[in-house]
Amino acid sequence: MERELYENEEYVILKNEKGKEEKFIDIAGIALSHGYYAILQPLERPKGMAEDEALVFKVDRLGDEDNAYTIVLDDTIVDEVFAEYGRLLDEAEEQI
Questions:
Q1: What's the pLDDT score for residue 96?
Q2: Residue 23 half-sphere exposure, CB side, CA atoms within 13 Å?
Q3: How many CA atoms lie within 13 A of 26 on its CB side?
Q4: 5 in a domain, yes or no?
Q5: Per-residue pLDDT at 6
Q6: How many domains is the chain partitioned into structurally?
Q7: The pTM is what?
Q8: Residues sharing a CB contact under 8 Å with residue 55, sequence separation 6 or more, in sequence order
Q9: Residue 2, domain member (yes or no)
Q10: pLDDT per residue rounded down to tens, the chain (96 residues)
């Protein structure tokens, strides 16, 4: 099932291990002391992935406009990224 993109959403196109392009919704960028991470949600979810699930990628700057995205499999880092995302959302809601 493919998710429809809304006009104000940004997306990232990454190539998988087979060289096929995959589109991801850019949910958030999170800066931690040990790096910068992106929370991305695939437009075409793999089987078994819930609609509200997202993946965490480490983002490394390669040049002026190029970035390298590496999926994060370390549960500790994934938990840190989502905890910071939740904290930022709570902080934003408090300001409303």
A1: 78
A2: 11
A3: 14
A4: no
A5: 55
A6: 1
A7: 0.84
A8: 24, 39, 40, 41, 42, 71, 72
A9: no
A10: 344 555 566 789 998 889 999 999 999 999 999 999 999 999 888 889 998 899 999 999 887 778 899 999 999 999 999 999 999 999 998 887
Which domain covers residue 63, as residue numbers?
A: 11-94
Instruction: Indicate whether 6 belongs to any domain.
Output: no
Q: How many CB atoms lie within 10 A of CB 39?
A: 20
d(CA 31, CA 52): 22
In-domain check, residue 18: yes
Q: Give DSSP secondary structure letters for the chain.
A: -BPPPPTT--EEEEE-TTS-EEEEEEEEEEEETTEEEEEEEESBPPTT--TT--EEEEEEE-SSS-EEEEE---HHHHHHHHHHHHHHHHHHHHT-
